[in-house]
Amino acid sequence: MGWESYEFTVVGPHQVEVTNASWGHEKADHSYVVGIEERDGVPVPTECGCKADQYREDYDCKHKVALASVGGPVVLQAAVEYATPTVDADETTTQTLEDKLRADGGMIAEERHEDGAGVIEAKPAECDCDDLRDDFPCWPCVRTGRRELPE
Fold it and tell me: Buried-most residue among 5, 12, 47, 54 (CB within 10 A)?
């Protein structure tokens, strides 16, 4: 296993997705969810979705071995402690468009209507149009199509 590169993602309670990243752009085809159980308080990989684990009982598959040896106790414990999301029936999960747009620190777009069709245009963060003379647009606004150069 020294030549293989693995990635680990906790995907649920007691579940870790083990990806053989050595496959490069095809690594998604070499990704399996490994189930974890606690045995005497120690998290242990116990099942995997790969064919080697499903059809062989005399040894553990390389994904379980990689999780135990490369991922180690930190990844295993994270999967054991993964919180199960709960849904409160009285609480709504509806978000406004403004909440969704601001999640990454982005900006709210300005809306402009032309001929009855709604067109969304956003003022670029680096816009300097207000500082320029004769209503001349800044380059970021021209580049994004927000404003056009005068003729």
Answer: 47
- Highest averaged pLDDT of the listed ranges 53-62, 92-101, 132-141: 53-62
Assign 95 a pLDDT band (cuts: 50, 70, 90): low
Neighbour-count burial of 20, counting CB atoms closer than 10 A to its CB (0-12 exposed, 13-18 middle, 19+ buried): buried
Query: What is the distance between the alpha carbons of residues 110 and 146, in angstroms, rounded to a whole number?
Result: 10
For residue 53, count CB atoms less than 10 angstroms from its CB and return exposed for 0-12, middle for 13-18, buried for 19 or more.
buried
Split at pLDDT 50, 70, 90, the class of 86 is: low
Alpha-carbon 105 to chain mean position: 17
Task: Label the pairing between strands 110-114 and 117-121.
Answer: antiparallel
pLDDT tens by residue, 7-35: 999 999 999 999 999 988 999 998 999 99
Beta strands in the chain (DSSP E): 6-12, 15-20, 31-39, 42-48, 110-114, 117-121
Task: Check whether 105 has a pLDDT greater than 60.
Answer: no
Q: How far is CA 15 from CA 74, 76, 84, 110, 118, in A?
A: 13, 9, 12, 43, 45
